[in-house]
Design goal:
By secondary structure, the chain is mostly beta strands. The protein is built from three helices and ten strands; from the N terminus they run βαβββββββββαα. Strands 2, 3, 4, 5, 6, 7 and 8 form a seven-stranded antiparallel beta sheet that branches. Strands 1-10-9 form a three-stranded antiparallel beta sheet, with no helix packed on it. It is elongated, with a radius of gyration of 25 Å.
Length: 163
């Protein structure tokens, strides 16, 4: 929590703060992602008058993601640059004279969330039959076996096969 008493009580006042998030995990409905490293960031808060604050800054986090193909852990940096106006009358981040910095960072991280994370561009993923990580070696599953749902399609093509 960041004490904003000085900014809130003085219209037109701007204050810069150095912040170090206390978050260790980013939890969303689609999973939990461990924060591996966090850098001291900055937040600049300006009292715009009429019970409104303008918040901007920069915070960098290194977050652990699962590879989209093989599920191995991969770390990526998120450069979070919040830029928003907060209404003191109705806001989830402000409690009295305090700003919940961790909640702000948590929510703003979604705006820079990577669409898809791969451990490497040529990741081979997992075997669909046994789950073996194909980057670490081949599995003993029979290659070329078709999905049983495709058997009828194969029959159609074999009926029209030229001899």
């Amino acid at each position: 929590m960041l004490d904003l008493t000085d900014v809130i009580l003085n219209e037109g006042k701007t204050v810069s703060y150095e912040i170090l998030p206390e978050l260790s995990v980013l939890s969303y409905r689609f999973g939990e992602f461990r924060i591996l490293d966090k850098q001291t960031g900055t937040l600049r808060i300006e009292n715009k008058g009429d019970q409104k604050l303008f918040v901007c800054g920069e915070i960098e986090l290194e977050v652990e993601f699962p590879c989209a193909r093989c599920l191995e852990s991969v770390s990526r940096r998120l450069n979070i640059q919040p830029e928003l106006e907060l209404d003191l009358k109705e806001n989830d981040y402000i409690d009295g004279y305090y700003l919940d910095v961790d909640q702000l960072i948590h929510d703003e991280a979604l705006l820079v969330w990577p669409e898809r994370v791969l451990c490497r561009s040529d990741c081979r993923g997992l075997c669909v039959t046994c789950g073996q990580n194909l980057n670490k070696g081949e599995c003993s599953c029979q290659k070329g076996s078709l999905d049983p749902r495709m058997a009828k399609v194969l029959d159609i093509f074999s009926n029209y096969k030229e001899v």
